[in-house]
């Protein structure tokens, strides 16, 4: 089994050369061997990927089975049956160690079809080489096989023919097995007659039910004498074949004489009941206040008040000696006398009993009321209690459905062994079985790339890879700085800026909402009208371009309008919105803050942009906005933004010193540097091969010396010097709150060890105070007795599900836990991560 870890790359190797391909890491299931495979794209076919894996791992494509994370857990069971392997024990982890499931990747599809993202993990199962087929058996050998050898003997079917359990064979002469006879028939032995109505005990429950004797039989049983082991004593056992009146589906049941007694017919009056008496009462062990079944009980206490009568007894559950003590009998007016065998004449009809005993209802919703419609015990659609012969029972949810209530209705009962209702039935056309191709995705079918006739490979750009993680420390509509991201932070690609939460869109220059405002923007020199002066710049709005056909950029072709993102950025100005002439703020510092990111793409227009990557430059605010004709001749909306941030700008001397103190360097995607190094090594190997060819050919001698000269000029790479990072400084208020939070002293001591790592201290705090339920920084934290922190809302949700234990260690918290919020912890988290509670 192998594991595939997908990564994407894109960006400069040197100043002019770029790596714009996807690469993956192929890892064995045990994690001992890992190889990287380069030069892939989102549009790489799965069968092409198999060929690359075969070159590295020497595994033929026919023996490879690729799996990728998904939500179709049932497919794993299909794979287990197919390969006879314990696939369900495999676990897949992506870069953030999130547990996922698997589904199989098939040839003919691309990596994009399976939504393989950046740093996602795929697994490869290597099929075992099939053993050689055995030689066919000779005909004379086959002829010698008997039916019993092939498992086709009839012995089992012969034994299955009889379903009477010896009733007919053991019947004496003159008896009958018919269920209804007008008169009692005396079998000549035993205490009860055939067709007599009796009370019969259920051997599983210990309760007594009304029944009728259908047959009586005798069976001889030999037992050893206690005085001599060799002597045997023959005894006769009488078996009564009874049928329960209310449960005919149980068929005929054989009971011994001790489990049968005359039908109870005498109801005790209140004054006749005394302590110590054994009577028959109605009791429900599961719901003591509801009607249940009939049990023998010994009266323990009897109490009468002005408003109520109470009887407590010990419920006797059969001959095993089991009992339930101190049970309150709810139905004190329905206590029956236990009739002794032979004390009364046999009952030929159930009407001889003074009243019909009632058991607990089969349906708790309608209480077995025949006049009340119920969708639980009858048709789940109409609930009408009629036509039971036309009802179908779902094999999944056990609900009944009339054939004529279905949509479309059925005229006959289906002959299939299993039947499922519309809610439980799976659409076969939507199910992807093991080894089948993917179904066409409606979402991907609507994409511009699906309808394009271009053969261009668009799957190599970093904007196509998607986020590997998402910023959850602040909501997407957060204004102001993102906690833990200082000014001067530098990322190689825009997708990393999106992951950090500074600027969420991958491509769009403005992030905002037209009814709220703009949260961030990117200054990348995409518009010729932009003017960048560092602490202030003139920004051009979006729109006015034809981006049809999945285009990312185009020339200005029409006038811009103050709508969508243009209106969102205008809302940040501390002035009323004017979609005709624009507006200027009198107090521009009172406007909404905008996070500004400068891209290296704008370096050719502005010296304030970074030489490489994308840099966070702090908070700016909109001073004014106005419409004017741009260089293209069309109307564009212009915005003047000024810097309003306490942290120094990254191009100033103070800003550069602060960047050094914080140890801020270029941040690359995971695996990017390794891919670049592998690319360079591949080129070096190629150059060495060319040099060897030059050495063999004298005509290429000059090229050889030139290549050697270039190699001598290249300096040896030296390891970068490790810079000392400025310690994260806590304010007096933060120190006081940390000291006040005594319940989490151990956790704070662990987090304080990371103060020397500068901004990474906040990452440590986020890790330490992560809610185990929602996997976010705890909000309204409840510190449990076992020193774990959980969001109050998460703990309330757990208690609502009747789980009264700690989600982390299962320590019993008690049903009536007050769930007091740790206010010092909440206060310090608000200082470290301002705005993180928004939307929580």
From TrEMBL:
Localization annotation: Nucleus
Organism: Scleropages formosus
GO terms assigned for molecular function: DNA binding; histone binding; ubiquitin protein ligase activity; zinc ion binding
Lineage: Eukaryota, Metazoa, Chordata, Craniata, Vertebrata
Catalysis: reaction(s): S-ubiquitinyl-[E2 ubiquitin-conjugating enzyme]-L-cysteine + [acceptor protein]-L-lysine = [E2 ubiquitin-conjugating enzyme]-L-cysteine + N(6)-ubiquitinyl-[acceptor protein]-L-lysine
Protein's GO biological process: negative regulation of gene expression via chromosomal CpG island methylation; protein ubiquitination; response to stress
Role of this protein: Multi domain E3 ubiquitin ligase that also plays a role in DNA methylation and histone modifications.
UniProt name for this protein: E3 ubiquitin-protein ligase UHRF
InterPro entries given in the database record: PUA-like_sf, RING-HC_UHRF2, SRA-YDG_sf, SRA_YDG, TTD_dom, Ubiquitin-like_dom, Ubiquitin-like_domsf, Ubl_UHRF1
CDD domains given in the database record: PHD_UHRF1, RING-HC_UHRF2, Tudor_UHRF1_rpt1, Tudor_UHRF1_rpt2, Ubl_UHRF1
Annotated segments matching region Disordered: 132-182, 680-725
Keywords annotated in UniProt: Cell cycle, Chromatin regulator, DNA-binding, Metal-binding, Nucleus, Repeat, Repressor, Transcription, Transcription regulation, Transferase, Ubl conjugation pathway, Zinc, Zinc-finger
Gene3D superfamilies: 2.30.30.1150, 2.30.30.140, Phosphatidylinositol 3-kinase Catalytic Subunit, Chain A, domain 1, SRA-YDG, Zinc/RING finger domain, C3HC4 (zinc finger)
Pfam family, one: ubiquitin
């Amino acid at each position: 089994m192998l594991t595939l870890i997908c990564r994407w790359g894109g960006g400069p190797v040197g100043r002019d050369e770029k790596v714009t391909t996807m690469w993956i890491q192929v890892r064995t299931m045990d994690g001992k061997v890992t190889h990287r495979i380069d030069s892939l794209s989102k549009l790489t076919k799965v069968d092409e990927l198999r060929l690359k894996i075969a070159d590295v791992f020497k595994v033929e494509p026919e023996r490879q089975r690729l799996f990728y994370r998904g939500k179709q857990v049932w497919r794993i069971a299909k794979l287990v049956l197919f390969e006879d392997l314990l696939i369900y024990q495999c676990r897949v982890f992506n870069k953030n160690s999130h547990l996922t499931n698997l589904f199989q990747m098939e040839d003919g599809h691309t990596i994009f079809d399976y939504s393989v993202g950046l740093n996602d993990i795929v697994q490869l199962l290597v099929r075992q080489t099939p053993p050689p087929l055995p030689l066919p058996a000779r005909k004379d050998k086959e002829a010698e096989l008997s039916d019993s050898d092939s498992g086709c003997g009839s012995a089992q079917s012969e034994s299955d023919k009889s379903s009477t359990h010896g009733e007919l064979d053991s019947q004496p002469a003159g008896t009958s097995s018919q269920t209804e006879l007008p008169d009692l028939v005396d079998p000549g032995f035993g205490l009860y007659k055939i067709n007599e109505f009796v009370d019969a005990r259920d051997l599983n429950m210990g309760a007594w039910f009304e029944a009728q004797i259908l047959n009586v039989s005798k069976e001889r049983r030999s037992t050893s004498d206690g005085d001599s082991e060799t002597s045997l004593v023959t005894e006769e056992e009488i078996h009564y074949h009874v049928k329960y009146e209310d449960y005919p589906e149980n068929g005929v049941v054989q009971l011994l004489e001790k489990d049968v007694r005359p039908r109870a017919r005498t109801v005790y009056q209140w004054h006749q009941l005394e302590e110590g008496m054994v009577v028959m009462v109605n009791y429900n062990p599961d719901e003591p206040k509801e009607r249940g079944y009939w049990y023998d009980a010994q009266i323990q206490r009897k109490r009468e008040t002005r408003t109520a009568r109470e009887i407590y007894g010990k419920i006797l559950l059969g001959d095993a000696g089991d009992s339930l003590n101190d049970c309150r009998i709810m139905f004190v007016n329905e206590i029956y006398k236990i009739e002794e065998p032979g004390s009364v004449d046999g009952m030929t009809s159930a009407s001889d009993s003074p009243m019909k005993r009632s058991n607990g209802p089969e349906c708790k919703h309608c209480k077995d009321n025949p006049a009340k419609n119920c969708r639980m015990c009858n048709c789940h659609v109409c609930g009408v209690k009629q036509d039971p012969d036309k009802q179908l029972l779902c094999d999944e949810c056990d609900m009944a459905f009339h054939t004529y209530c279905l949509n479309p209705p059925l005229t006959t009962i289906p002959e299939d062994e299993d039947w499922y209702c519309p809610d439980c039935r799976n659409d076969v056309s939507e199910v992807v079985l093991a080894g089948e191709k993917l179904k066409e995705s409606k979402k991907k079918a609507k994409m511009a790339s699906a309808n394009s006739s271009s053969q261009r490979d668009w799957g190599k750009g970093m904007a196509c890879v998607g986020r590997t993680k998402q910023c959850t420390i602040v909501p997407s509509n957060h204004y102001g700085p993102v906690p833990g991201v200082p000014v001067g932070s530098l990322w190689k690609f825009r997708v990393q800026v999106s992951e950090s939460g500074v600027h969420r869109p991958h491509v769009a220059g403005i992030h905002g909402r037209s009814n709220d405002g703009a949260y961030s923007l990117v200054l990348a020199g995409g518009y010729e009208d932009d003017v960048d002066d560092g602490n202030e710049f003139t920004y051009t709005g979006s729109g006015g371009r034809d981006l049809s056909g999945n285009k990312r950029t185009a020339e200005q072709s029409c006038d811009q309008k103050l709508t969508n993102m243009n209106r969102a950025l205008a809302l940040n100005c501390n002035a009323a919105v004017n979609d005709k002439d624009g507006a200027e703020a009198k107090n521009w510092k009172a406007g909404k803050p905008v996070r500004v990111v400068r891209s290296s793409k704008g370096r050719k227009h502005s010296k304030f942009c970074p030489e490489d990557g994308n840099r966070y430059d702090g908070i700016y605010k909109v001073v004014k906005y106005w419409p004017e004709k741009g260089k293209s001749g069309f109307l564009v909306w212009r915005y003047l933004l000024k810097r309003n941030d306490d942290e120094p700008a990254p191009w100033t001397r103070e800003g550069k010193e602060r960047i050094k103190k914080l140890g801020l360097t270029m941040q690359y995607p995971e695996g990017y540097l390794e891919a670049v190094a592998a690319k360079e090594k591949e080129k070096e190997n190629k150059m060495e091969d060319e040099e060897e060819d030059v050495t063999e050919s004298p005509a290429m001698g000059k090229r050889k010396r030139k290549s050697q000269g270039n190699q001598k000029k290249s300096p040896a790479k030296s390891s970068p010097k490790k810079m000392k990072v400025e310690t994260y400084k806590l304010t007096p208020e933060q120190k006081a709150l940390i000291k006040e939070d005594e319940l989490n002293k151990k956790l704070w001591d662990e987090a304080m060890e990371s103060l020397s790592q500068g901004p990474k201290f906040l990452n440590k705090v986020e890790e330490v105070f992560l809610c185990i339920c929602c996997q976010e920084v705890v909000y309204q934290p409840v510190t449990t007795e076992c020193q774990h922190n959980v969001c109050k809302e998460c703990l309330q949700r757990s208690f609502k599900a009747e789980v009264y234990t700690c989600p982390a260690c299962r320590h019993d918290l008690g049903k009536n836990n007050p769930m007091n919020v740790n206010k010092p912890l909440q206060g310090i988290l608000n200082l470290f991560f301002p705005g993180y509670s928004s939307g929580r």
